[in-house]
Amino acid sequence: MPIDLDQELEPIDPDDEKYLHMLANLQGNILKSHGRDFAAHIFLRFTGKTKEVRKWVADFTNRFVTSAFRQAQETKEYKLNRISGRAFGGIYLTAEGYRKLGFPLDGFDEPQGGGSPNTFFRDGMEKRRAELNDPPVNKWDEGYRGRKIHAMIILADEDPARLQDVRKRVEKSFDGLAEVRAREDGIALRDANNKPVEQFGYRDGISQPLYFKADVQEEEDKFGTDKWDPSAPLNIVLTKDPLTGAPDSFGSYFVFRKLEENVKGFKETEEELAEVLGLPSEDENEGENERAGALIVGRFENGVPVLLSPTENAPDLRDFNNFHYGDDPSALKCPFQGHIRKTNPRGDTGFDDGKVNEGERRRRITRRGITYGKRKLGPDNKPTLEDRPSKNVGLLFQCFQSSIPDQFGFMQVQWVNNHEFARPLVQPPAPNAEDTGLDPVIGQGPRTAQHWPPAWGGAEVTDFDFAGFVTMKGGEYLFAPSIPFLRSLDGELPPVASDQAEFAAEGTTLG
């Protein structure tokens, strides 16, 4: 029976036969991260004849694209035997790419606000620049200007040498068919505990929508889920692929943004904020001297939520995720503008029967970004966080969703860049109830001073302007097509059987 996304309201079991066709038809990295530490992002402009380019896309798909089904099998193999799978591959198309391949865009009207169409994807990021307060296009990296990108390829691996070998073979196949507009190399940055962090040194990737039952159960066993439910229905990330009639064929809208991070400026201003707030110096420590950064981000560098602790010395709270902001309605522990509160307000918009309302939860995006740029290497030959570069490092921000305007677009415009979001839910108003200000990490637009609590949970606030250390250098809106659509570009639509044959030895079938 075909999958109806509107009926799939709970996390799924990828081993359930019901979902095997869907997962074989779906590109990997959408429902679960590919998990590789090294990634190549290649942005293409098609230059060959349409028929030849179509055949190249189908061939690339058959040779390199990793299905969600394959990814799930490789994840099981890794957990059992610690054996890494082959290189991951994915391909996404822009609206201009679909036009170049000769396809109509009528089916790509993303739903917004309960049904009215919006056209973020069809218009492209450059055209919608002003809504997001993005920098002028002449400030973007050259490769992202002029809507000249037709496709984006991701190749990823745990072995950087093997990744380069695959990349060379792929790029050789472009000859006469496509030109490279931009290349971005990602390398996951990790802390001393081998946990992923972003360039400013803070834990990253903690709170993600979870689509598989086992992942939700793991979270429940680890932290509990009574205050924050990390599970998500498939329809916040998947949508029907409009250009194939093959059953159980879904895709996802994809946002890519290159965000350069001024680590030097951020850390120096973080120290200035700590001084203004009267926080103890590092030699006085007691774990509280890092609270200025925790107020900015919403977590200490080690992942402890500032909502739950005034210091980083709370080992049981590292990466803790079972909380909501109903416990801090006046934002005197975690300020309203704290990055993770701005982007995931966990009840700041309201509650239904004691739970964060579903309207807010449906704004969530599925983040798949990776850091870029060179940092100093430690004795284990891995990048360290000891230096403070001011440019040429940052985040290759990437996210999947079923609607760009309802999710990423709404989040950026109505929350991140909105001086008046969020507002306290209690009366009388909190002392910081005037302007909340920009998200201090990724906010863009006119700046005003934000309100910061010097004492954790205290009633007083101090004004301080913190923003401007992340610069958008270019990007694009894309769509991750279903595998049946991609394979059909060679002129015929093969049955969903290639993955079945590959894993037949394991006794797995696809129906």
Keywords, please?
alpha+beta, 6-stranded antiparallel sheet, 4-stranded antiparallel sheet, 14 helices, 18 strands
Query: What is the terminal-to-terminal distance?
Result: 11 Å
Question: What share of residues are in beta strands?
Answer: 15-25%
**Helix proportion range:** 10-25%
Give start-end ranges of low-pLDDT stretches: 493-511
Write a structural description.
The chain is of the alpha+beta class. It has two domains: 287 residues, no CATH class; 175 residues, no CATH class. Helix content is 24%, strand content 18%. The chain is built from 14 helices and 18 strands. Strands 9, 10, 13, 14, 15 and 18 form a six-stranded antiparallel beta sheet that branches. A four-stranded antiparallel beta sheet has the order 2-5-1-6. It has a two-stranded antiparallel sheet with strand order 3-4. Strand 7 and strand 8 form a beta hairpin. The protein is globular and about 65 Å long. It starts with 19 loop residues before the first helix and ends in a 9-residue tail after the last helix. 48% of the residues are buried.
In brief, what are we looking at here?
With 511 residues, the chain is of the alpha+beta class.
Set out the fold topology:
Layout (H helix, E strand, L loop, with lengths): L19 H6 L12 E9 L3 H15 L3 H14 L6 E6 L1 H6 L9 E3 L3 E3 L1 H4 L27 E7 L2 H13 L5 E10 L1 E2 L5 E2 L15 H10 L16 E2 L9 E12 L1 H14 L14 H7 L41 H5 L7 E2 L2 E2 L1 H4 L4 E2 L2 E3 L21 E8 L3 H12 L33 E3 L9 E3 L5 E11 L2 H6 L9 H5 L9
